[in-house]
Amino acid sequence: MGDGTPDHGGGVDAAAATYGGARDLWIDLSTGINPVAYPLPVFEGRDWSVLPDDRAQAALARAARQFWQIPDGAAVLAAPGASSLIARIPALMPPGKVSIQAPTYNEHGRAFAAAGWDVGEEIAVQAQVLVHPNNPDGRVWAASDVTADLCIIDESFCDVMPMQSLIALSARPGVIVLKSFGKFWGLAGVRLGFAIGDPAMIAKVAQMLGPWPVSGPALAVGTQALQDVPWADAARARLAADAARLDALMVSLGPKVVGGTSLFRLYDTDDAAGWQHRLARHQIWSRIFPYSNRWVRLGLPGAPADWARLETALERVETGR
User: Which residue, 4, 21, 59, 243, is the most exposed by fewest CB within 10 angstroms?
Assistant: First the structure.
């Protein structure tokens, strides 16, 4: 963490180059993106042809406040993806010590280290990052865990478990809650994320992003999706059922469930690299980690045909074929 080495899901192009098979035939289970994406609306010509106006941006902010039940005292800022916010937030304060409990999403540590911060796991620090629920093990945090002057609560995966959200803390001074649109709604290519929290700090981030940070089409789909509560409820139920189905498949072959969320599952295996290799021979890409030779993380298949391919691949993995 913070060593400058990228470590992400994805990378299917490189996997296809190594193991063969047309790129479009690969099943990417290395990310935690909902495989059944929110249906795109019909965009108007002005969504593409004019600069996003204040009305469109305000409509998205209202939809976000309603969906996430954001306190009145917190500010809302839409951005071109949560990653763009993660990269800028360390500049909100002079560098000091930041607490980031490992293992977790590594971009936070990279961003703070690049800004000159001392990244560690101490408790008495100037800033802290709580990935809630944590990636990759699904650990959740409590309000009592928020102790630093600057606290980043990354809720990129929390939309599958809204009752666990710490959004009520976003009205506190020094607190910023991050939300990712691409994960739960399955539209990572839209590049939409939110910073919610301390108005003074949110204003500084807005200045860093400059005018019109979010595209017209992203404003349109984000506003519609955040108002579609029935879709969100149905998605949560489907994801929970599919996560249980995936657990049953994996446990039947020996791996143990370490944790995760209903968007990704983390398993303890006898040989993580071996599992990744054997699945890749069937054009299925998984996620392993540089800090563990046992952990394998799998996202969820979407289409019935993808489930069938995974089940067949797992059968062959078991028999060594």
Answer: 4
Q: Give the whole-angstrom CA distance, residue 252 versus residue 274.
A: 18
**Among candidates 312, 236, 245, 234, which has minimal Cα distance to 27?**
312
How far, in Å, CA of 205 to CA of 187, rounded?
Answer: 23
Helix 272-280 with 304-319: angle, nearest 10 deg = 120
Q: What is the pLDDT of residues 252-263, one digit of tens each?
A: 999 999 999 999
pLDDT digits (tens, 9 = 90+) for 63-118: 999 999 999 999 999 999 999 999 999 999 999 999 999 999 999 999 999 999 99
Instruction: Evaluate the CA torsion angle 303, 307, 312, 318 in order and state its sign.
Output: positive
What are 318's two structure tokens? 């078991």
Question: Residue 318: pLDDT above 90?
Answer: no
Read off φ and ψ for residue 172, nearest 5 degrees: -75, 145
Those residues with Cβ within 8 angstroms of residue 166's Cβ, 6 or more apart along the chain or in another chain: 130, 132, 141, 143, 146, 153, 155, 177
Q: What is the DSSP letter of 119?
A: E
How many Å is the Cα radius of gyration of the chain? Answer: 20
Residue 299 burial class via C-beta count within 10 angstroms: exposed 0-12, middle 13-18, buried 19 and up:
buried
Task: Please enumerate in sequence order all residues whose Cβ is within 8 A of that of 64, keeping only pairs 6 or more positions apart, or say none.
Answer: 70, 76, 78, 179, 194, 196, 222, 226
Give the separation between CA 279 and CA 194, rounded to whole angstroms.
Answer: 35
- Is the model's pLDDT at 230 over the cut of 50? yes
Q: For the chain, what percent of residues have pLDDT higher than 70? A: 96
pLDDT value at 222 more than 50: yes
Per-residue pLDDT for 5 more than 80? no
What local confidence, expressed as pLDDT, does residue 123 receive?
A: 85
